[in-house]
Design goal:
The radius of gyration is 18 Å and the shape is globular. It contains three helices and eight strands; from the N terminus they run βααβββαββββ. Helix 2 runs antiparallel to helix 3. The protein has a three-stranded antiparallel beta sheet with strand order 1-8-5, with helices on one face. It is α+β, with helices and mostly antiparallel strands and about 150 residues long. It has a single domain, classed as Alpha-Beta Complex (Ribosomal Protein L22, Chain A), CATH 3.90.470.10. The N and C termini lie far apart (about 40 Å). Strand 3 and strand 4 form a beta hairpin.
Amino acid sequence: MPYSLKFPEEKAARAYGHELRTSWKNSINICIAIQGMPVRKAEAYLEAVINLEKPVKMVRRNRKIAAKPGIGRGRYPVKSAERTLRVLRNAINNAEYQGLDPDKMVITHAQAYKGRSLKAFMPRAHGRATKKNEETTNLEIFIVEQEEEA
């Protein structure tokens, strides 16, 4: 599966999560929240979401969502945050392998979109069956090393 952006060759790293079994609606809001953050701050933010300490502000697809103090409509999407954190740590490891300093890196691009549907059936009463489709998510993260300002 190709990336949606052209990869900047200098001082950059990327990671891709292919068909993650998590909600793509929650993953979109997490990507909006972490885009532009330094990677260590984003890592701490995702760990706080997993520990139910900080909610994620729901910007997209936010109907009938309760308000959280300080941010408005928000939730704690633990499963999506775990998968996003795994992909972010993969990008950090890719940067370290290239010889870059992860403490100076910033997330320039984070995007989540629908993967394929996993088809299944759930048995019901009287010999019937119901469709049970599981949505998957594709997730990509680009991180770039920032130069220090004098």
